[in-house]
């Protein structure tokens, strides 16, 4: 059966099977319109489907039905946990997002550990983390970041 997908004033026809799931409909929309299924919000005549595993016929779609497609922002990535080991060997756990900057992380460490950000040397996988984002340094879930202190003197 053919259904019409309406998106931003455009209409696109998709051929689907009534037993196709809402999830597989989203995949077909992705293939035709290049819209990530996680960002798709569908609106059928009788409301928003909230179960991607149900067949589209469950929601009353039939030949000639119209489906409105709204593209939403992707959900933010879930926080991950990393461990910070200080110069005394004590570990602390931090929840971070991969898009977090090294500067922001240093400021959070300063608030919790009491070490000024300017005195921190953060090391991950043998590389000093100076600028950019944590993900630029291959920080992953359960990574350990080592903190040493800048040496003073001359």
TrEMBL record:
InterPro entries: Ubiquitin-like_dom (IPR000626), Ubiquitin-like_domsf (IPR029071), Ubiquitin_dom (IPR019956)
One matching Pfam family: ubiquitin
Domain of life: Eukaryota
SMART domains: UBQ (SM00213)
GO molecular function term, any single one: polyubiquitin modification-dependent protein binding
GO process terms (BP): proteasome-mediated ubiquitin-dependent protein catabolic process
GO cellular component, one term: nucleoplasm
Ubiquitin-like domain boundaries: 1-76, 80-154
Protein name (record): ISG15 ubiquitin like modifier
Provenance organism: Haplochromis burtoni (Burton's mouthbrooder)
UniProt lineage: Eukaryota, Metazoa, Chordata, Craniata, Vertebrata
């Amino acid at each position: 059966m053919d259904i019409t997908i309406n998106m931003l004033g455009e209409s696109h026809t998709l051929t689907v099977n009534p037993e196709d799931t809402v999830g597989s409909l989203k995949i077909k929309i992705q293939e035709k319109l290049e819209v990530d299924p996680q960002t798709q919000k569908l609106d059928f005549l009788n409301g928003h489907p909230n179960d991607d595993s149900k067949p589209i016929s469950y929601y009353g779609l039939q030949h000639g039905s119209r489906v409105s497609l709204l593209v939403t922002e992707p959900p933010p990535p879930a926080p991950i946990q990393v461990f910070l080991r200080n110069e005394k060997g004590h570990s602390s756990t931090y929840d971070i997002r991969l898009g977090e900057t090294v500067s922001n992380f240093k400021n959070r460490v300063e608030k919790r550990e009491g070490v000024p950000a300017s005195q921190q040397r953060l090391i991950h996988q043998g590389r000093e983390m100076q600028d950019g984002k944590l993900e630029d340094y291959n920080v992953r879930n359960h990574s350990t970041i080592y903190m040493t202190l800048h040496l003073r003197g001359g």
